[in-house]
Amino acid sequence: MNYITFREPIEDGLGYFILQKEFPHYLCNISESPVVNFIQPMPVTSYNLWLCFKGTIRGNFIPSYKDVYEEIRSVMQDMANWYFENRILIEPKKYRKWKV
Asked: Nearest-CA neighbor of 49 among 87, 14, 19, 21?
């Protein structure tokens, strides 16, 4: 398992997040609508759910090395696939209101 999911209080309720376990510990918010940041949101297969990049576990920190944008997009795609396989497919009834 490369990722963990958790809930955290945010200004308008609870936020759902997914975190990469390995360095650099990328963090994404699981959202009903795409929120454009530095990185374009990543859709979750067959659902109206999006992974929106939030930085790393250290906050709004982005590593600065060559091809970091491509690395983040690749990790976000892997996160979306992992979330679909390990959360949605296990409890499909819980996610039916977001089904496309």
From this structure: 87
Range of the domain at 88: 3-98
User: Going by C-beta distance under 8 Å and a sequence separation of 6 or more, which residues neighbour residue 18?
Assistant: 3, 4, 5, 27, 28, 30, 51, 79, 82, 83
The predicted-structure confidence for 6-48, as pLDDT tens digits, reads as follows: 999 888 778 899 999 999 999 999 999 898 887 999 999 999 9
Q: For the chain, how many structural domains are there in total? A: 1
Q: How far apart are CA 75 and CA 88, in angstroms?
A: 18
